[in-house]
Amino acid sequence: MLALQEIEKIYFTDEHAVRAVTDITLTVKNGEFVSFIGPSGCGKTTLLSIIAGLLEPTSGTIFMNNHKMEGYSKETGYMLQQDYLFPWLTIRQNVELGLVITGLHTPETSSRTMQLLEQLGLGDKADVFPAELSGGMRQRAALVRMLAPEPSLLLLDEPFSALDYQTKLKLEDLVSITLKNQHKTAVLVTHDLSEAIAMSDRIFLFESNPGTIHHTFDVPEMLRSLSPFETRNHPSFHSYFQKIWEELENVESQYQDST
């Protein structure tokens, strides 16, 4: 579904050239959920922005469904840590905004979006303003806005990190179930290793300076078949967490030694 070939991004200033990511080659299957983890500054969000078409790679190529991607694609949806709902628009107007911008706003797509709003427990909030909603409700509205144009690829940049723990766990389950039901392909950037394990089919561990893929972990089938909340409570979760945690610690130690 998604293929990255030798992606590199270099930031140039008058005095320096900083290599943010280098030699990134990976594939994501249709319907797969993958996560990017690693130390701060290892280029996870930079890479996500490149996939989204918000940044141009210095070199390398990206393919989606075997077609070369250049710039932004309507097939891609992006969800961020902040919901970025427009405060002067109602929730209905906010979640339909992507449909309007992409020229997909019709009675049929509007009806489908309202059904999705109902499914995520916001049906009675369609005509209120964002300030009247809790943080978790706002993120659910942001999820509906992202899904409304029916993108094939969803990019999630720490979408739960600003929420309280209980809301975060509930939203993880809600997002996971929604994406599986809609057979979506997703890439998640997160600093939360538990979240990565609970939601993913595969996990890409990045190392820093410059950012590159250190190791890829396949989440065991026994965990992938569960909801995120059930995964966190599975007997094998802790041992798998420790396995990845030790590798993450090694990566961070190497980065500290190099700096």
Strand order of the largest sheet: 6-7-8-3-9-10
Radius of gyration: 19 Å
Shape: globular
CATH architecture term of the largest domain: 3-Layer(aba) Sandwich
Which ranges are low-confidence, i.e. pLDDT below 50, for 5 or more consecutive residues? Answer: none
Within CATH, the superfamily of the largest domain carries the name P-loop containing nucleotide triphosphate hydrolases
Major sheet summary line: 6 strands, mixed
Total beta strand runs: 10
Which bin fits the share of residues in helices?
A: 25-40%
Q: Which percent range describes the beta-strand content?
A: 15-25%
- Tally of helical runs: 10
Structural class: alpha/beta
Oligomer: single chain
Number of domains: 2
CATH top level of the largest domain is Alpha Beta
Average pLDDT rating: 91
The CATH topology annotation of the largest domain reads as Rossmann fold
What does this structure look like?
- This protein is α/β, with parallel strands linked by helices.
- The protein folds into two domains: 2-75 and 152-258, Rossmann fold, CATH 3.40.50; 79-151, no CATH class.
- Helix content is 39%, strand content 24%.
- It contains ten helices and ten strands.
- The chain has helices at residues 44-52, 91-95, 97-101, 107-119, 135-147, 165-181, 193-199, 221-224, 228-232, 237-258, and strands at 2-12, 17-28, 33-37, 59-64, 67-68, 76-79, 153-157, 185-189, 202-207, 212-218.
- A six-stranded mixed sheet has the order 6-7-8-3-9-10, with helices on both faces. Strands 2-1-4-5 form a four-stranded antiparallel sheet, with helices on one face.
- Helix 5 (135-147) packs parallel to helix 6 (165-181).
- The longest helix is centred in the C-terminal third of the chain and has 22 residues, at 237-258.
- The chain is globular.
- It holds the Pfam family ABC_tran.
- One of its GO terms (molecular function) is ATP binding.
- InterPro entries: AAA+_ATPase, ABC_transporter-like_ATP-bd, ABC_transporter-like_CS, ABC_transporter_ATP-bind, P-loop_NTPase.
